[in-house]
Write a structure and sequence with these properties.
142 residues, alpha+beta, 5 strands, 16% strand, globular
Length: 142
């Protein structure tokens, strides 16, 4: 596994793990790497220094993350998805307009989730409406 320091087009710094350099490139090209703060998919690797050991006395051998930790991450994301689906209303592609209606008091205050374009999400944030991208994974349950 490779940990990259990343930066989005709006200047947010964040980190992410990838199976390989090629995996990062493929995911970025497909628009599947998004800023955790603003949701921008315009992401690039930030300059970073390599992790070097000070010598043989350095703490244990460097090892990539095990498959078990990957499975734990997938399980956590699955649990997050189930929680959101159970406790929030799905509003589909009407997410931006419904979020505005809730924000202005025209609709009942409640948790919602749905789809919004990058520009719609940016506009909502600019209007002071709190939104966040959700790291959805493809369903494995059909």
């Amino acid at each position: 596994m490779i940990r990259y320091s990343l930066k989005c087009a709006t200047g947010h710094d964040f980190e992410a793990w990838f199976r390989s350099s090629a995996a990062f490139d493929e995911q970025r090209e497909a628009g599947r790497v998004a800023c955790a703060v603003c949701g921008s998919v315009e992401v690039a690797k930030a300059p970073m220094a390599p992790a070097l050991k000070a010598g043989r006395a350095a703490a244990g051998p460097s090892r990539p993350a095990s498959r078990g930790s990957s499975q734990a991450g997938e399980a956590a994301l699955g649990a997050l998805r189930r929680h959101i689906e159970r406790t929030s209303d799905y509003v589909g592609p009407e997410f931006a307009s419904e979020a505005r209606r809730i924000h202005t008091g025209e609709a009942e205050k409640r948790s919602i989730w749905g789809e919004a374009s990058r520009d719609e999400a940016r506009s909502l944030k600019d209007e002071g409406i709190p939104v966040a991208p959700i790291p959805w994974m493809r369903r494995s349950d059909g």
